[in-house]
Every structure is written in structure tokens, then in C-alpha cells.
Design goal:
Length: 234
Amino acid sequence: MNVAILSEGLSAGKVLLFNKPLYWTSFDLVNKVRHVIRHNLHLKNLKIGHAGTLDPLATGLMVLCTGKETRNIEKYQDQPKEYAARIKLGATTSSFDLETEIDAHYPVAHIRKEEVEEILKTFMGTQLQVPPGFSARMVSGRRAYTLARKGEKPELPPKEITIYSIFMTTCELPDIEIQVLCSKGTYIRALARDIGLRLGSGGYLTNLVRTAIGDFLLKDALSVDDFERNLVFL
């Protein structure tokens, strides 16, 4: 494709789907895409934004918008999100995932597959969820994770979320894998915590992949390397 035509298309507005690499922040991905476009197409002032963050320890679908399409970011952010998550029962961490060390152990001998399936059903619908302390929520003008990483325990008010569907795909106790379709603002790490609690145990997230945002699917997403190699074919 002619570079001028491609540049014009990106400025007019495109939706780009990416599979975020493990350990990258959402901003890392945006900055990388911006650098690739600037380096190859010399678009210095192109607007690029993302429609929904992913934690560094999560992988999967991110929707990036360029040019005039950034006006529609909120529309994409509001779409339901689908996740595949792996949870370890019987222990907790302060971050509810692998970012921090295990801080407590709990019994799991009483947990059965059938009980997990029944407990998961209780999460269906609209409810209040307390966000993790290790989150980007604002507390007195500061990010909650900034306080949490200093050893403080930020108090976060519960937020309304909706779980549209949730079911177990693998049961290898004390590990389970679940698929969740949920509203904007749902923390799967907090869901792992709450599942552990309702099972009379503990739980934390060991793997998370976002597989869909509305009609956008992970299977259609590019890797960063693919994007660099195939930029001219967008």
C-alpha cells in the first residue's frame, strides 16, 4: 500500500487489535505502536489511544484506536469483556495475583468440583465488587497501587459490575480455570479472591487472558512483531 494512503487512513481513524505481551503495561503497547508508526510513516502527531487496560501480568486482546477513531474509545471501553482465567485455591496474595508473594494458606480438602460449579453460579448478575488495593483506582488523588506497593492498605469503595456468564473450563484442584463474560470495570483478580472466600478457602489469579471485547476477538489480533512486519498491509 502507498505510504501516503496508509498514513491518511491512520489519521482518518483505524481500530487496531493487538495481543498484549506478558509483563508489558498497556502504555508500553501504545508507546511501541506509536514508535513503529512514527519510524515507518513519519506521522509525528498521530493520536493513539487504547480502549481498556490490561495488567502487566495479563495477556490478550487490546483495542487501539488511531486518529479520529480515538473519539470512539469510550464506546469500545463500554463493551462486555471476555476472559480466560486460572485461579489457585488454598492461598492468597495481597495483590490477588502473582505480583506479590503468598501471604496466607487455607484448607482445600473440603472443595469438590460440584461445589465450585455451584459457587460460580452465585456470581451471575449485577453486584458490588471491592476493587483490589493493587489497582489504578484513585485514592486521595493517588493511584491505589502506589499506596499498596508501599505497604499501605488503601480503602476502596465497592463498584457495581455485571457478570453475564461464568463457568469452569478445567478443574485440577486446587487449580481451576474459568471463562468469564463481564462488564467494564470488573476485576478478575478480585473475582478470584471472592471465589476463594465463598468456597471457605482462599484464591488468587495465576493466569489471565482477555479473549474478546464486544465483537472484537483475540484470534483476530496482531502480535507486536506482526504489526512491525505487516504495517504497510493494514
